[in-house]
């Protein structure tokens, strides 16, 4: 349990340090805008609840794609295609920058 709390602390600290940097803040904002945009679109277009819409947005961008909810409309399918192409790259870049932030300091300084 202590290990989990320690790792959670390290992750939260890394996110805070990352969003203090201008490029990290901009990237985090883009990821949030992407998730909010997807949530709003799925709620309005597909008629899903806000939580279901956020859930689909997160699982889509994380490339999990559980398939329990899928867009039924043509507009929803087209939106999802664009959502994937734009969002997966943003999220992957954010996670990559977060991973660099989590590396021990001597390795970060050498790179």
From TrEMBL:
Signal peptide: none annotated. Residues 30-102 form the Potassium channel domain. GO terms for cellular component: plasma membrane. Pfam families: Ion_trans_2 (PF07885). Its main location: membrane. It is a multi-pass membrane protein. InterPro entries: 2pore_dom_K_chnl, K_chnl_dom. GO terms for biological process: stabilization of membrane potential. GO terms for molecular function: outward rectifier potassium channel activity; potassium ion leak channel activity. It comes from the Bacteria. It is found in: Membrane. Keywords: Ion channel, Ion transport, Membrane, Transmembrane, Transmembrane helix, Transport. The chain crosses the membrane at residues 26-44, 78-99. This is Ion channel.
């Amino acid at each position: 349990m202590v290990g989990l709390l320690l790792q959670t602390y390290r992750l939260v600290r890394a996110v805070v340090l990352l969003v203090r940097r201008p490029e990290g803040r901009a990237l985090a904002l883009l990821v949030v805008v992407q998730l909010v945009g997807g949530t709003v679109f799925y709620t309005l277009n597909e008629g899903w609840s806000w939580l279901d819409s956020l859930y689909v947005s997160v699982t889509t961008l994380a490339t999990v794609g559980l398939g329990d909810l899928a867009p039924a409309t043509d507009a929803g399918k087209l939106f999802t295609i664009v959502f994937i192409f734009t969002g997966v790259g943003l999220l992957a870049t954010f996670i990559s920058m977060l991973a660099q932030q989590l590396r021990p300091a001597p390795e970060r300084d050498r790179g």
